[in-house]
Amino acid sequence: MNTTTLLLNEHRIIEQVLNCLERMVDRCEVHRTLERGPARDAVVFLRGFIERCHDRRVDTQLLPAMRAEGIPPERCLGCSLRQRREECRLHLDAMEAAIEPASSGHAAALEQFAQDAQTYIELMLELIADQEDCAFPMIARAVRKADKAPRTTANHEDEAEYVCNTYVDVANRLADHFGVPRAVIADSAGNRSVNNSS
Asked: Does the N terminus or the C terminus of the chain have fewer Cβ atoms within 10 A?
């Protein structure tokens, strides 16, 4: 499976969890409640999957492929990529800090969680759009070259995929809990199916 397809699939899974987070925001605002377990699972996924799987793939495969083709990543993703990632982390940290008091019904914490979650969702959707609308179409040739580059050892790759699949299991648990459809993802041949990791 090529790098672009993998990143697109990861985007769909991230969006799946952002949809679950949107449901949490609605419950905070309308029902004045936050479930501790699902909120923690969402933070674990968003911190772990995005930083350990998705951002690592962007940094080690996508950006080098763009540079190899003479396409400065800043042209699409902007110098603000790091800055926007840091903004996302700050909002995620604030969400995590608000979980305990919010799940106990503390009004200010519920409001704080909802605000930071909504801002986080908007930032992540902007990052996804920047990659898909600008970067991906520009680097089709670059990605093909990157996919021919030497790959990491099988053991390291297997371990990384296991970690990523563990996070996808968390994403699917959240989707099932909130009644959010699981992501539709593509395989290397372009066939699409519902994400059923494990």
From this structure: C
